[in-house]
Amino acid sequence: MKFKALIVEDEMLSRNFLSNLVREFCPQLELAGIVSNVADAVRFINTQSPQLVFLDIEMQTGTGFDVLKQTHHHDFHVIFTTAFDHYAIQAIKFSAVDYLLKPINLEELEQAVDKAIKQITGRQEDNRLELLLKNLHRPAGDDFCISLSTSEGVDFIPLSIIIRLEAKGPYTTFYLKDGRQIMVSRNLKEYEISLQEHGFFRIHNSYMINLKDVKRWVKTDGGYAVMSDDAMVAISPKKKDEFMALMTKRMV
């Protein structure tokens, strides 16, 4: 089975280079279309329903985000392409959407395509594009949001209201400032990768905390942090020095 792909790229050399790579090295894909502007990309996606879109961020007619805003649905996977470290890369990373820096590396292309195909064949609920658009258009001063999928639906939670995370086997429980507890079926390690750049710290094998919500740091009894919800979270001996350095930096 082949998966229908679309390339959206307005620069001819980059367009030809990527299309040649896809045709020669990505046999899982059927390159169904190559377009060079926002309007044609929106039209193709709305009428042809590709499963994977290679989407240039900056085009003369607009941006890849304009394409996403104008399409009727988001049930396709996106791999962004960009020639430089674009201002939106942080939002793209946080939303777990893949991107490739130009000139495109063959190994990175193959890895991104393999990952996309696993997502497509897994038939799992995918709200990454909605999360990306939400993070890109958040009001000035607002924090990023994270999507938490449960059996009841998907919650988009601002990072600023997360106090701590607790691992329970393959599950992770989020403790929020409004008193809610949300359990999701993903392990803590997956969240550690995306949250550690946003003021969160893996203080223990079973816990990750928002450093801004540490109310008290107790050095006795092995060491623990008292959080804003009065929870006492043990500090792993291996993490103690790093935690002390981070808290000292916060107090400066």
UniProtKB/TrEMBL annotation:
On this chain, the residues bearing 4-aspartylphosphate are: D56
Q: Which domain of life is it from?
A: Bacteria
Q: Does the keyword DNA-binding apply?
A: yes
Q: Which PROSITE patterns match?
A: HTH_LYTTR, RESPONSE_REGULATORY
Query: Origin organism of this chain?
Result: Chitinophaga defluvii
Q: Which UniProt keywords apply?
A: DNA-binding, Phosphoprotein
Q: What is this protein called?
A: LytTR family DNA-binding domain-containing protein
- Name all Response regulatory domain ranges: 4-117
Spell out the Pfam families in the cross-references: LytTR, Response_reg
- Leader sequence range is none
Keyword set includes Phosphoprotein: yes
Q: Where's the HTH LytTR-type domain?
A: 146-249
What Gene Ontology molecular function terms does this protein carry? DNA binding
SMART domains documented for this protein: LytTR, REC
